[in-house]
């Protein structure tokens, strides 16, 4: 098989930029959770400050992908690989924004300690973290089975989210003074649940890349 | 666009178990293919894959090459075109052809177009005028040449000459137009004009084109056929073939990784 050096190098660049974005999102998510657990405003602020880097990476992907379409006239899976990298990077960018939203909650709580150990929220983050790793692996290996498995992970995240909402509601009934923190934690749960949805979108993109079909894994 | 075309259009050309040999060389191997009417079908593949050979079987141009042997069926509108009672001249009137290099006759623009109709017995000046005008209009050349019909065809640019050749083919009222790399000697603007023209013409004619330009096949055709070493590897709606080819060899070829 003939290697198209310039084109294949471009595709590899896209792949490594996506990997870099994933790592960035994973880091932002974990750091946000840690800053929430420890009520560490400075740590939260430093995560927020790094958001621009993620946007920069997304722009780079747009630039390289557009250039490859313009100069290489890709077809079939080559074209899908570029289209999918646009979609995945925009999902990752949103996932980054939602991680930042968690950090912003920490800033808003202004050092107020969390009222309970964040067991289910931590569990949600662990699953999402796993989904991010799976998405990178599935993309690199073009592994459709793994992409479908991510939809199952998302179901678990949704379940935990429902559980967290019910628990927080009971706190609210117990002590209405906790309303502010309950709302903030509900938002955190919601953000993580949304991050998992975007990760599921990435799974869909990978299925499209490999099969040219568009499943709806988020339903 | 392509799915609708395929669904709506009837098969015009039917090729069954076609084998063609140039002497001992097996140039086409067991080709089975149906070509729908009033649509554009593109043949793609590397040099020597048999695409032009197959195109030439459709108006029996291969008959002119010594040592050519054909087995199998090529039927057009239900008639076996290789049957002994088929008149080749009549067949070629029904199946016009445009080549890579524009090949106008060393005559005036008018006489180039009128040549075929005259050959087929039309003598009336007004009737010939009408055919010349209509053919040139169909080939989107009329506006550019209507005031210079007596000028030599060689005074035209390459792109205009090629459209003149298309007009000449249309003048005898064919069913099918074969285009063998018809734009590869033209500049990008002339190429675009011919491609636009093809989109117009397919409403009336069945067009089969051979092209080395894959973007052209993707842009202009409804169906695409990929050939390799005399074999038909894949035949599908153009959109499908270029987005999700089913054969690995097709994918390698269209993505430029063939080797």
From TrEMBL, chain A:
* GO biological process, any: intracellular phosphate ion homeostasis
The subcellular localization recorded is:
Cytoplasm
Which family does the similarity line name?
Answer: Belongs to the PhoU family.
Please name the Gene3D superfamilies in this protein's record.
Phosphate transport system protein phou homolog 2, domain 2 (1.20.58.220)
Describe its function: Plays a role in the regulation of phosphate uptake.
Quaternary structure annotation from Swiss-Prot or TrEMBL:
Homodimer.
Identify this protein by name: Phosphate-specific transport system accessory protein PhoU
Q: Is Secreted one of the keywords? A: no
Q: What is its main location?
A: cytoplasm
Q: Which Pfam families match?
A: PhoU (PF01895)
TrEMBL record, chain B:
Where is the protein found, in the record's own terms? Answer: Cell inner membrane
- Span of domain ABC transporter: 13-254
Pfam families the record matches: ABC_tran
Domain of life assignment: Bacteria
Q: Which GO terms describe its molecular function?
A: ATP binding; ATP hydrolysis activity; phosphate transmembrane transporter activity
GO biological process, any? phosphate ion transmembrane transport
Q: Which InterPro entries match?
A: AAA+_ATPase (IPR003593), ABC_transporter-like_ATP-bd (IPR003439), ABC_transporter-like_CS (IPR017871), P-loop_NTPase (IPR027417), PstB-like (IPR005670)
**GO cellular component terms, semicolon-separated:** plasma membrane
UniProt topology in membrane = Peripheral membrane protein
Q: Which terms are listed as keywords in the entry?
A: ATP-binding, Cell membrane, Membrane, Nucleotide-binding, Phosphate transport, Translocase, Transport
Its function?
Answer: Part of the ABC transporter complex PstSACB involved in phosphate import. Responsible for energy coupling to the transport system.
Query: What name does UniProt use for this protein?
Result: Phosphate ABC transporter ATP-binding protein, PhoT family
Tell me which species this is from.
Paenibacillus aquistagni
Its lineage opens with: Bacteria, Bacillati, Bacillota, Bacilli, Bacillales
């Amino acid at each position: 098989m003939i290697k198209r050096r310039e084109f294949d190098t471009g595709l590899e660049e896209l792949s490594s930029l996506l990997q870099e974005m994933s790592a960035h999102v994973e880091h932002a998510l974990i750091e946000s959770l840690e800053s929430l657990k420890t009520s560490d405003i400075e740590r939260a602020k430093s995560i927020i400050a790094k958001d621009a880097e993620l946007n920069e990476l997304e722009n780079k992907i747009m630039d390289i992908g557009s250039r490859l379409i313009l100069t290489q006239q890709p077809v079939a899976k080559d074209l899908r690989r570029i289209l999918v990298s646009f979609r995945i990077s925009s999902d990752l960018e949103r996932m980054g924004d939602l991680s930042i939203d968690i950090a912003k909650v920490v800033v808003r709580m202004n050092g107020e300690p969390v009222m309970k150990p964040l067991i289910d929220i931590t569990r949600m983050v662990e699953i999402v973290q796993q989904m991010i790793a799976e998405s990178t692996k599935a993309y690199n290996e073009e592994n459709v089975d793994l992409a479908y498995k991510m939809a199952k992970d998302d179901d678990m995240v949704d379940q935990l989210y429902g559980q967290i909402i019910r628990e927080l509601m009971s706190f609210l009934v117990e002590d209405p003074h906790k309303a502010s923190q309950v709302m903030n934690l509900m938002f955190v749960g919601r953000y993580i649940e949304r991050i998992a949805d975007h990760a599921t979108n990435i799974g869909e993109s990978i299925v499209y890349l490999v099969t040219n079909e568009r499943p709806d894994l988020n339903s | 666009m392509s799915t609708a075309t395929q669904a709506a259009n009837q098969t015009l050309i039917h090729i069954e178990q076609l084998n063609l040999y140039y002497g001992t060389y097996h140039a086409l191997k067991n080709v089975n293919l149906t070509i729908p009417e009033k649509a554009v079908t593109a043949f793609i593949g590397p040099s020597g894959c048999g695409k032009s050979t197959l195109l030439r079987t459709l108006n029996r141009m291969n008959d002119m090459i010594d040592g050519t042997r054909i087995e199998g069926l090529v039927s057009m509108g239900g008639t076996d075109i290789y049957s002994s009672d088929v008149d080749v001249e009549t067949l070629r009137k029904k199946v016009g052809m445009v080549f890579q290099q524009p090949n106008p006759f060393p005559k005036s623009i008018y006489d180039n177009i009128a040549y075929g109709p005259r050959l087929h017995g039309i003598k009336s000046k007004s009737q010939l005028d009408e055919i010349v005008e209509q053919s040139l209009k169909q080939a989107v050349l009329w506006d550019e040449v209507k005031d210079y019909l007596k000028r030599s065809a060689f005074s035209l640019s390459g792109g205009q000459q090629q459209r003149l050749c298309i007009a000449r083919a249309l003048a005898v009222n064919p069913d099918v137009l074969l285009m063998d790399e018809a734009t590869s000697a033209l500049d990008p603007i002339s190429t675009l004009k011919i491609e636009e023209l093809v989109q117009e013409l397919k409403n009336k004619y069945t067009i089969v084109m051979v092209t080395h330009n894959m973007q052209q096949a993707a842009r202009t055709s409804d169906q695409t056929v990929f050939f390799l070493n005399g074999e038909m590897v894949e035949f599908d709606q153009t959109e499908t073939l270029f987005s999700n080819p089913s054969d690995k060899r097709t994918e390698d070829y269209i993505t430029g990784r063939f080797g």
